[in-house]
Amino acid sequence: MKIKSLYLFALAFIFFTAFGWTTVDAQEATESTVIEPLVSSLSEPNNVTLAKITERREEAANDTFLTKSQKATALALFDRAIQAIHTTEKLTLEAKAVRARAAAAPARISELSLQLAQADKKFVISPEQFDNLPVEEISTLADRARRNLDLARDEFYRNRVAIRQLSIRPVATIGIDDVSLNRRISGETDQREEITRGDPGTLFDARQYIELTLRDERQAKRDLAREWFANFDHLMRLEILELEIALLEVNRLTARYESLKRAIESVRINKAREERENAEVEAASMSAMPDAMWQLAIKNQRLRKQIEDTMELEMEAARLLRDEHARVGLFEVDLEYTQRRLSRIGPNPAMGRLIRDRLVGLPSIVQLEQAAANRRVETERAVDARIELERSFRTLLLPEIVASEILESISDKRIAELGEPWIRNEVKDLLVAQRRNAEELYTLNGRYLLVLAGLSETEGRITLAVRKSLQLAADELLWIPSMPPISTGNLGHYSNTLQWLVSGELWSASLQSAFEAFSLNSWISWGLMAILIALVYFRPRLRRALVELSEKVQRVRTDAFRHSMAALVISVALAAAWPFGIAFIGWLIRSDPGNMSVAVGHALIVAGRLLFAFSLARWIFQPRGLSRHFRWPEAVCTAFLTEMKWFAPMFVFTGTLVAFSKQAGIEDVSLAIGRPALILGWIVTMVVIWRLLGPASALNAHLREAETPTLVNRWRFIWVSILLLVPLLLVMSSAIGYQYAAVRFSSVFLETQVLIAGLLLLRDLLMRWFYVAERRMRFESILRRREEARLERERLGEAEESEGSGIGIDVDEEEIDYRQLGEQGRSFIRVGVVFGMLLGLWAMWGALLPAISALDRVELPFSHTLVVDGLERQVAVTLTDLVRVLIILAIAYFTSKNLAGLLSFTILRPLRFDAGASYAIVTLCQYVLIAAAVVYAFSNIGFEWSKLQWLVAALGVGLGFGLQEIVANFVSGIILLIERPVRVGDIVTVGDGEGFIARIRIRATTIVTWEGKEMVVPNKEFITQRVLNWTLSNSQMRLYLEVGVAYGNDIRLARKLVLEALDEAEHVLKDPSPTVTFGSFGDNALILEVRCYLPDFDYWHSSRTEIHNAIYEKFTKAGITIAFPQRDVHLDVKGPIDVMLRREGPQNDPA
Pairing with 130, which of 144, 444, 598, 713 sits 20 to 30 Å away (CA)? Predict the structure, then answer.
């Protein structure tokens, strides 16, 4: 940094720091009225000395009449009195020093003013004056100058701190403090009078001593304050002059030190250049020597060249580091000063102008990032060179061995000509020189790396200061008028700025910057040019491909979701050609560090972004574009394309002008270009919104024709009003002077529109994905049913019908109906879009709207742990954290509710899991999702596991007894889902109940019986009791029947007919084959036992009925009688029936 700039900045800082000081003449009267009652309240003469108090303290320590508490109180009072005496002595000495400094101030001020007037402030010291001195003496002078410079800087900082302390000492502070102190001490004196009436003598003396010493301490403070107030003007003037003199001394010593350093650098570089020239001469002289020796000389020459280059790089980096040190100090002081003024004065138009002036001088973040990237490249290159040097050291450790190896590579003839001793000595000398050069380069490389590290750290501080300044401007300028309201007085600014804008000077400089950046970044530039050429060249093919894809999605046989994704990629490629070229030119221009070049480049990049957005929308809404995939109304798409023909160029043009004026940071440019462009852009936007969404629009007609009114249709008035009201507010804000706020809100509003459009496009893509997959499955189901019908007709011997008649179905004409999607899939998409929109709006508008940002300032009475810079810190939980947690829990809840449909439709069904496995996977995923969301939510609001583990353990013990059954059922449910002894759809028998598993919940499992009744069984019973699972390992079911044949029929024929009936049954498996055995002779029939297997329980009842019918029909045709229970009753009627009546019971003995 230049000396003159540093000098002016220091003076400005001094006077800004001292700004606002006022003296109050009535202060002495206030002080006297405040202090005098306190002084008069103590009428005792002050003859207290340190020796007397120390003596009385020793007596109190040995006093046996005092209680323990009284002795402790007395000793504490004596200690405080001793401290007050020391403080009084210190304040008295300070007051004498102030009085003496004030007495000598006029003469010292005159002396320093004359010295300052006669001082030379240029401090131009040429390094050539040290050319005749040896480098050692120059280094000694430089070290001495550095020490003197450090002392001068310490003096300068001491004076600056003294001025700051003097300037921030409020005039009324001591007076107010004395008033409050007087009242407090008066109250304490009254209390002590009540307390000390019954105190022992030693304790009473201690209280008297403390009152006297405190009175002296207060008197000393008042005397010091009076000295400061009475001599403030002289003292402040003296401090400022001394600071100016100290600054002059710092600048003088800095110039001398820099001159000495440049002289040392000149000597070093001259020496390095001389040694490099000597190495070149030596290498040239070695050209006739053997190749191995010549290569060593060439290596030394290269090392000397590297040493010279590295030395120049180090010097350049060191000079840049010094400049960056000065610049970062300037930025940090500016930022500190601005923050302090804001805290004292608050936001107002003057502070707005100050902040905007600060922003003009700030470097671009893009430039700082580019500088940081270049610094990283330089550091990596230096590190690679250092590693290579470390590798070369290994071959230079033993020059004798290396010399022997080189001698072995030289032919015997050359050795005989030159002599082996001479060659060995020359090689050793070259190797020693090479090692010396490598060590010097290694040391120099280390210094260069240190300078680069310091430079990176300093540039990082600059970047941080710039980011803080930009954030400060973003926070404060939002609610401060940045320019005057629209008036006729600004017409002069308009004409002059427009003439400058259309002049060729700005654009010629921008084009020159673009050409220079293209040549500097040739590889990247040519690569981007190749991409641009490819996008333009393939545009006709991409158009044809887009049309072909729109035709494919109209037929079920060729429709696929990949066609829609391909159409989206093609639309992006078609829309990106010209926007990419404009943004590429802007990137080239922005590479120049000039402010206007950065502004022009930034404006062109914004133009490319806006043009890409409109171009992409145009290709999506094309009749043969992606809109046809989604079945968007053609009338709405046509209306949108019609409006975009004139609106898109207008909005891109005005948006580019607004971006240019904002980045330029010049008020005249914002007045003449930025504000009119912003107002015009939003006015035409309101016109387009009304024409596209108004009552007479095609979209409104389509929404009215909808069969079921949607939420968008019901709330149409609200969201259309918002879309019209926001541009109107932006226009009014810009017109009354809030241009910065209008530009900031405009940017966020555009980002919000892009977010909503992207989410709606994503929603339609997901809906189409669901629909295509479901329609494909329905189509395959239709084909499968048709094939089954054809096979059935062939089995029955019927003629196969033609493909276009009968069962053939024209599936290509099926219309898309999104309502046929699963309810869970639709709910998941809707909820995902809504939450995505809420999170996006929160992220975009949270920092701008005070109502949202205020949530982050409301702290709740608990904290959570965050890792900041590798350290764990306790951070208070805010309402923002609480709202974020609630949103996450809501997302987890809705996701878990709709997870079954999503997983089964997207993952489980293509993997062909059975129903039980799918249900188990979905349920476990739901449990994991809810558990993860709860853990994350608790950790973010302070309920971490490390704090709750003992509470959870204690509750676990209590709940283990109180809720034992519920916990057992829950754990059993988890085991059922993991081990799967029973699955959804399995046929089980539990106790006296039988049916199939319908649901497995957390606490109980639902079984649907054959009568359709739902039986709820606790999960624990499936683990602790015997359960019969009919379909655990195999879904095949055995069907057992008993057929009774009447006695006298042919049993072999009956058995044959039963086997024929089983073979003809549709669902009876051939493997394992059915069996019919002659089981037993029954009471009324010959029993045939029939056993066969069915593929699934679904065919149990139908197959049982089918087999019974077939057996009955076959037995009837064959004349075989199916037995039924019979009983024969035989009555003998040949004679009368004797009827005897007998009484049961004991008989009497006749005897």
Answer: 444
263 and 138 in contact (C-beta within 8 Å)? yes
Neighbours of 903 (CB within 10 A): 18
601 and 590 Cβ atoms separated by less than 8 Å = yes
For residue 566, give the nearest of 526, 617, 626, 517 by alpha carbon: 626
Q: Cβ of 898: how many Cβ atoms within 10 Å?
A: 21
3-state secondary structure of 474: helix
CA distance 157 to 151: 10
Stretch 949-957: mean pLDDT, rounded? Answer: 64
Asked if pLDDT for residue 683 goes beyond 90, the answer is: yes
Q: Report the distance separating Cα 243 and Cα 6, nearest Å.
A: 13
pLDDT exceeds cutoff 70 at 36: no
Q: What are phi and psi of 1140, to 5 degrees?
A: -120, 135
Q: Is 563 helix (H, G, I), strand (E, B) or coil?
A: helix
Element (H, E) at 713: helix 711-714
1094, 1067 Cβ separation under 8 angstroms: yes
Roughly what angle, to the nearest 10 degrees, separates helices 739-795 and 675-693?
A: 30
Residue 1141's Cβ-count burial label (10 Å; 0-12, 13-18, 19+) is exposed
Give the per-residue pLDDT at 132: 63
Instruction: Enumerate the β-bridge partners of residue 875.
Output: 864
Distance of alpha carbon 370 from alpha carbon 591, whole angstroms: 9
Question: Which pLDDT value is given to residue 842?
Answer: 77
Sequence-ordered list of residues with C-beta below 8 angstroms from that of 486, at least 6 positions apart, any chain: 675, 735, 736
State which fold the 1037-1118 domain adopts.
Answer: Alpha-Beta Plaits (3.30.70)
Domain ranges of the chain: 3-12+26-33+45-265, 292-479, 488-794+820-824, 1037-1118
Q: For 11, what's the count of Cα atoms within 13 Å in the CB-facing half-sphere?
A: 9
Distance separating alpha carbons of residues 775 and 764, to the nearest angstrom: 16
Check: CB of residue 583 under 8 Å from CB of residue 605: yes
Q: Examine residue 1072 and say whether the peptide bond preceding it is cis (omega within 30 degrees of 0).
A: yes
* CA gap 469, 483 in Å, rounded: 20
Q: 10 Å Cβ neighbour count for 698?
A: 19
- What region, left, alpha or beta, does residue 837 occupy, with left being phi > 0 and alpha being psi -120 to 50 degrees? alpha
- What stretches of 460-506 adopt beta strand conformation (E)? none
Residue 1018 pairs with which residues in a beta bridge? 1004
Measured N-to-C along each axis, helices 3-17 and 291-345 cross at an angle, to the nearest 10 degrees, of: 20
For residues 659 and 670, what is the distance between their CA atoms, to the nearest angstrom?
A: 10
Per-residue pLDDT reduced to its tens digit, 562-615: 888 899 999 999 998 889 888 888 888 777 655 677 778 888 889 999 999 999
CB burial of 263-298 (b: ≥16 within 10 Å; e: otherwise) equals bbbbbbeeebbebbeebbebbeebeebbebbbebbb
Task: Kindly list the distances between the CA atom of residue 402 and the CA atoms of 283, 297, 418, 428, 1149, in Å, as whole numbers in the listed order.
Answer: 19, 15, 19, 8, 147
The pLDDT value given to residue 549: 87
Distance separating alpha carbons of residues 318 and 104, to the nearest angstrom: 44
Q: Which amino acid is at 206?
A: A
Contacts for 799 with CB less than 8 Å, ≥ 6 apart: 793
Q: First vs last Cα of the chain: how many Å apart?
A: 155
762-783 b/e with 16+ CB inside 10 Å = b? ebbbbbbbbbbbebeeebeebe
pLDDT at residue 804, as a whole number: 40
531 pLDDT more than 80: yes
Q: Which helix (H) or strand (E) holds 218?
A: helix 201-230
What tens digit of pLDDT does each residue of 141-163 get? 777 777 777 777 777 667 666 66
Contact between 1028 and 989 under an 8 Å Cβ cutoff? The reply is: yes
Given a cut of 90, whether residue 824 has pLDDT beyond it is no
Spatial contact of 481 and 348, defined as CB atoms under 8 Å apart: no
The pTM assigned to this predicted structure is 0.59
What is the crossing angle of helices 349-360 and 291-345, to 10°?
170
